Amino acid sequence: MSSITNANFLKKDSQICHEKVIFFPDVLFPWRPTILAYASLSISNSIGFPIDAVKTRMQSRYDFKGYHDCIKRTYISEGVRGFYRGITIPLISNSISRSLTISLFIKLKPVFYYTVPCLEMNKSVIREAQVSFLSGATSAGIISIFTCPFDSLKIHSQILILVQKDLLKNSTSSQIHYSKEHFSIINTLRKAVKYKGLRSVYSGFKYHLSRDTLSGGIYYSSYEVTKFLLSSFPEASLQTSIFIAGGIAGVLGGLVAFPLDTAKSLVQKNVISDIIRIENGLDPLPCKANSIKIFHGAVYKGITATAFRAFIVNSIFFTIFEFSMARLH
């Protein structure tokens, strides 16, 4: 994913190439970007998952006073495990889907670079931004079709306890009961299909698709452009360029996606509420629209955690991935 039109960057790239090279197995070489991306994402996602758990909880419930209150109450009610509930999903499915997105991005970028006639040809940085945006948005949009159910299950696992407690607190019926059995991801999937149908795992798909397509374009274009620009400064090392570019890309992509991500979380929270109500013999609540109010403060609850997590996770990811790609041949 290196910038391909900047001589300074190519010169800096030799810093890695001259280091010790490890040979990648020939049989797996065609899948090298996917495998290395998956390994890098697994490491970075494990580090950033507790922050993501806090963000999702704050998006889905508006009575937390702040991050400290959310962390404290989560720890008191669920312990350390509460911050890692649902981590199996991103470690397996999300890492796979994002690694496939990166592989698709790498394949699509040359196609857009040489076949789209309307792109700016005179200013290389503008062209780099245009190509990367189109490649990133297309790749993320395609893969989002397969990632929506897994993302739904992750959110279900993260906020299921909160939904149960809200129903217990707000319901006058003694039929609602609290059960730890619901914590299982497999059990959550089974109940979702049983009570709401297979379509329930695609709840909020329009927000999911819009979020991934738009943020994917911003994410990859901002990474490539930032790395491209930093390469023009002799004092900026390659390692620093990659680390900073990865962090900026993560923050910008996350900020653009945040309102859509919040709307998706609210839609899926309603699905979980209906599943619990139906399971306990109650009627589901009337459907309600989840309109996005861009300038409403509640929409952006948890945004600081999102920006912090995005910078850390993506800086780590791109650093590991770029250096692995350079060293493993």
Protein model, in words:
This protein has 329 residues and is an all-alpha fold. It has a single domain, classed as Mitochondrial carrier fold (Alpha/alpha barrel), CATH 1.50.40.10. It has nine helices and no strands. The protein has helices spanning 7-17, 32-60, 67-78, 88-115, 124-170, 185-196, 205-230, 238-279, 303-327. The two termini are 15 Å apart. Residues 1-14 have low confidence and may be disordered. Keywords: Membrane, Mitochondrion, Repeat, Transmembrane, Transmembrane helix, Transport.
Keywords:
transmembrane transporter activity, globular, mainly alpha, 329 residues, 9 helices, transmembrane helix, repeat, disordered N terminus, Mitochondrial carrier fold, single chain, mitochondrion
Summarize the structure.
With 329 residues, this protein is mainly α. It has helices at residues 7-17, 32-60, 67-78, 88-115, 124-170, 185-196, 205-230, 238-279, 303-327. Solcar repeats lie at residues 32-111, 127-229, 237-327.
Instruction: Give me the Rg, rounded.
Output: 21 Å
Q: How far from one another are the termini?
A: 15 Å
The CATH homologous superfamily: Mitochondrial carrier domain
Parts with pLDDT < 50 across at least 5 consecutive residues:
1-14
Shape: globular
Give helix % range: over 70%
Oligomer: single chain
How many structurally independent domains? Answer: 1
Total helical segments? 9
Order of helices and strands: HHHHHHHHH
Give a quick account of the main beta sheet: strands, pairing sense, barrel closure: none
Please give the number of β-strands.
Answer: 0
Family: Belongs to the mitochondrial carrier (TC 2.A.29) family.
Main location: mitochondrion
InterPro entries: MCP_dom_sf, MCP_transmembrane, Mitochondrial_Carrier
GO molecular function: transmembrane transporter activity
